[in-house]
Amino acid sequence: MELLIQKAEEFVHNELGKDSSGHDWFHIDRVRKLANYIRQKEDAGDAFIIEMAALLHDITDEKLNDTREIGEQKLHDFLLSIPLTEIQRKHIEEIIQTISFKGGNESELQSIEARIVRDADRLDAIGAIGIARTFAYGGKAGSPVYNPEAGVRVRMSVEEYRNGKSSSIHHFYEKLLLLKDRMHTKTAKELAEQRHQFMGDFLSQFYKEWNGQYEVSDS
Hints:
The protein has 219 residues and is an all-alpha fold. The chain has one domain (2-210): Hypothetical protein af1432.
């Protein structure tokens, strides 16, 4: 199993090592570590399946490929290149196909392994790291930091979520602030509380600075 984990690490390094949108190797490694931690705390799930799915979860992402189909084929080819059972391969692919947010159009999860990997990925999307990744991706995608004239998008299709115009600050309301209440495991729910509060504090400070609410002591 360790050799297969190592092969997955090498594959992901080659595919995402130079990413600058917040989906780089360090993101993958954080999600892997979070998933392993959640599994241990919850004492549930197949450790090998969870770690492999966490390592490979962004390979199919359409943001990182010309099309979703290209990414799915890339993942499929890699999984066929290593000695897995068909049940293992299909389980890993099923997890990766179902964990994405998709503008709130989420897939229903079929296993504890999928719930753990989704929770780990979403934890890395919030808190201080989540804030940093939001602005990294916004800059890469050409989105403004904030446009107060734009409205928060709700009830979006997947296409609208992926390709519609928004700002990095709006992304907090369209996704990040929603994630705390969408965690599945007890461990992830507890970890999400502090990260969610940190984002709220950040937004409060952001609006003070944006709106020129200066605070200087008279003494």
